[in-house]
Structure formats: C-alpha cells, structure tokens
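Predict the 3D structure for this chain.
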Amino acid sequence: MKLIAITKPYCENDEAAFIRRLFESGFDIVHLRKPETDINYCRALLEKLTEEERKKIIVHDHHILYEEFSLKGIHINKNVTTLPKDYQGFKTRSCHSLEEVKMYKNDFDYVFLSPIFDSISKVGYKSAFDEEVLKKASEQGIIDEKVVALGGVTFDKIPYLKELKFGGVAMMGSVFKSPRR
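Done. Predicted structure below.
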C-alpha cells in the first residue's frame, strides 16, 4: 500500500526538512500542492531536496517544474485540468465520486478518491461515502490498487482501508498535526 503525503497549500517554515523526514519515516511519495504559492518558492524548495527525493515528488500546480527538476510526475485536479501536450510521464488525478474513478483510473497511474472520512484540514468537509458504499465499490473492483484514499485518513485507519483494497492512502491534515512534526 502506497503511503502518500500532500503538502499544505501555502509556504511552511523549513518545509524541505519536513519533506525529507516524511521520506525517512516511510512515505513513498509527496504531492507538492501549492495553489497559493509562487512558483519561485516551489523552485527554492525543490532545490533544497536531493535528486533522489525529487524523484518521489508529484507536482500539482506548476507543471513546468516536472521537467525542470526531474520530478516523479504531474497531478490533475479541478484547478489544473489538463496535462502538458505530449506528456508521457507518471500521472495522477483527483476524483470525488465513484463515477469519476471508473471514468479516469485506467488512464492514470493512480487516482485519489475523496473525501473518504471527514477532513482533518478542511473544516466542514464531510465524508462523501458511507461504509456500505465503500464495501460495495471494493467488491465490484472499483476500489483497487489504482485508487488512493484521501480525506480524514489517519494512521489508525490504514488497516480498514487495506481491507477495502485501496492501493494507497494520502494524508495532509494528520501528517501536519502529528506530534512528529
């Protein structure tokens, strides 16, 4: 099961060191999601990471950084809806319904499905799926190794998400609220 972290949308103090600690503690991938941040901050942040660490970064908002820093890949979401022309690299996408998962998962390396649980980082952002809906989607093969659970995911929920056959978990709120921060 992939363990994925998502950065906060704005600048953080000593963020490169925090990203490094995420990798050291077992995270496989970090999504650099900075819609509220200037591209030059992102460049400066990426310059502080090693080449090996950058190969585990997926960029959301400033796609030009993918080639500039040899990053792992590019993420598509409601803010950035298309990949660069002729892009052939690793690609991921946000989905907010099972219909979107069915529509997109075969065209992407993985898709996020959210919100699985009530969000930790977005106040009032409630789960969109009850337990029965998730179980049925798992039984039908909609949830599989290409679907990553996002939204309110905490470490104690990982065994349940494994039972549902999610291929990974993505965390933002629980990672940044963790005492290990």
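Strands lie at 2-6, 29-32, 57-59, 73-76, 90-95, 110-113, 147-150, 168-171.
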